Amino acid sequence: MAAKKKTWNKVNIVTEIGKCRYCGSSMVNTDSFVVFLSTDKNGDREKAHYACMVKDDYKQIINKNKGEIQHGK
Questions:
Q1: What is the pTM of this model?
Q2: What's the rounded Cα separation, in Å, for the pair 49 and 34?
C-alpha cells in the first residue's frame, strides 16, 4: 500500500523588521529590502528599502558628476 502524500500548509507570517535607513518608515519582512553591515544605535543591523537605496545611489552619482564638471574634469 502506497504512503499517503503529505501536503504542507504554507503560513505567511508578516513581521516588522525595523525602520528604513533612508526614509525612516516601518518595514516588514515581505518588503523588498537590503541589510547593511553597519549597526544602528540599538546594535541591530541597518536595513533599507531596496528602492530607497537605489534612489540614494543615483543621487550620489549625480552629485559626484556635478562636482567633476565644476572642477573642470
A1: 0.70
A2: 6
Please tell me what DSSP assigns to residue 20.
Answer: B
Cα distance between residue 5 and residue 29, in whole Å = 31
d(CA 71, CA 65): 10
Supply angle C-alpha 33, 23, 19, rounded to 5.
60
40-58 tens-digit pLDDT: 888 889 999 999 999 999 9
49 touches 31 (CB < 8 A): yes
Count H helices and E strands in the chain, helices first.
1, 4
3-state SS of the chain: helix, strand, coil percent to 5?
Answer: 30, 25, 45
Residues 6+ apart with CB under 8 A from 15: 28, 29
Q: Where are the domains of the chain?
A: 16-70
